[in-house]
Structures are given as C-alpha cells and as structure tokens.
Fold this sequence. Notes:
The protein is an alpha/beta fold. It has helices spanning 6-9, 16-31, 107-120, 134-137, 153-162, 188-196, and strands spanning 37-41, 56-61, 74-78, 93-99, 121-132, 165-175, 205-212. It has one domain: Rossmann fold, CATH 3.40.50.
Amino acid sequence: METMSYHETRFKYDKRRTVVWQEITREIERRLHIGDTVLDVGCGYGDFINNIRCTNKFAIDRNSGMKQYLNSDVVFINCEAQDISSCFDPERFDFIFCSNLLEHLERKEIGCLLRTFRVLLKLGGYLAILSPNYRRASNLYFDDYTHITPLSDVGLSDWLVAEGFRLVSLEPGFLPYSLKGARLPITRFFVRCWLNSPLKPWGKQMLIVARRS
C-alpha cells in the first residue's frame, strides 16, 4: 500500500505562501545587506530563494521534486543538508537561509550543520534561521510527526554563539506557527502590518540572524 508523503500531509503546496514570503524577503532585505551570493538550505517550494533579490541563487533540498517550483535563475542541488560541505568551497556565500529544517534533525546533526554554515559563509556573512520556537509552541511542536529536536530562541541563540557566530537579531515570535488552518486573511497588507507590529500575540516561529565574525 502506497503511503502519502510529508509534502502531501503536513507541507502541501499553498500559493498563499508566495504572498507571505514576498513580504518576508522584503523585510529581510530592508534590514540586512544580503550580498551577491545566497544559499537556501532545505528550500522546499522555493518561497525564500525565489523572492530574494541577489545575483547568484543556490538552493538545496533532499526532495528532488522541489526543483520544479524554483525559478530559472536558481541553481538547485538535490542532497541532504548534512552533505552540503562537499558541494561548495569554503567562504562561498554572503547569506545563508534555513527555514523549518533544524527541528527535523538530531542534535549532533544540527551542531555539524551550524559549523558547516560558518565554513561556507564569507567573513562577515549572515546566517538567518526561521524555526518553530518551542518556548511558544510546545503544545503544537510535535503535531508534526517529523519533528525531532525541540529548539527555543534562547537555546539556539546560545548555540550559535558557542559555534563562533555573533548574534545580530532575535525575534521569538516573528511569524505564526503555520498557514495550515489559518483563519486570518493572507494579504500583502495584513502580512506587512503583522511584520511591522510590535505585538505579535500568535507569533510562534522565531527568526534568528547571526553573523560570521
């Protein structure tokens, strides 16, 4: 009997994400100098890498089917996140983005990946991590049957510093937990208001930005 894949149950394609991510990338570009060369690790449907503005775009995902969702200017590599050190030379990237990936890995794998990110970043390059915040979403965290490691804004921030990064910014409740079952309108205006609001009562995903110092 054939079973449904993760992308058919927990992570279905949803065109509303494009609206959300156009605003997220706009906000990130406003805050940081992204640089010319960007890597999206665990790119999924390409929501980030398709919308970010830069010269050289690279995306990695273990699911080869994600390539079809990427724009033509994105170089796609089908591999496990833990294997990216063999795909690129050191100090290749100005900016590395990682969304909703680390919680699917064991702690040892996360540590190795953070060290790999540091090697792949140029001096002064940025690492941005978007992930469910266990301190705010403990009641929902393991509803996703593929989640393995609980991560909080405090713990992950300290971990990044321990691995040689300098913390640039931390937002414990940057986004709601998921679009799945969302009842609020997903429009550019609403998303922009959310991102610029000092109060985010439903914010359960953290955004951490660190820099290779």
